[in-house]
Amino acid sequence: MATVxxxxxxxxxxxxxxxxxxxxxxxxxxxxxxxxxxxSLAASFLWVMNGSRRPAQVSRPLASLRRKGIEVVLGExxxxxxERREATVAGKPIAAEQLIVALGADFRPDTxxxxxxxxxxxxxxxxxxxxRDALAEIRSGRIAVLTAAPAY
Length: 152
Known about the structure:
alpha/beta; FAD/NAD(P)-binding domain; three-stranded antiparallel β-sheet; 4 helices; 26% strand
């Protein structure tokens, strides 16, 4: 029996875990790790921003992967030992024969002066929800749009 450890419950990690579950026999263990309990489809955040979808409509509990035979571990990835194919999650080591790292990127508005205090984003589910509410309040004026780099 081999264990495949998938770090990250975003699109890359969830797709990898699902494909491997379909292709590998049930004797193989697939473990998906993420710090969030829900997977949100980032491509749908624009719909949340413009009000045509609610956050619950673009996210699903990662726990639903368990019915497919994918183990789900919730916690922060604290350390990755690539040579040993091991990750420490919430203080506990998880070893595997194969390791997939699909942790994605963190949104860092603090790296642009003033952005954190005055800016909005649709790159996160929470940000898209706040931006939707902020846009609903605008009655006149100008909106500046900043794209410092592609989000995905």
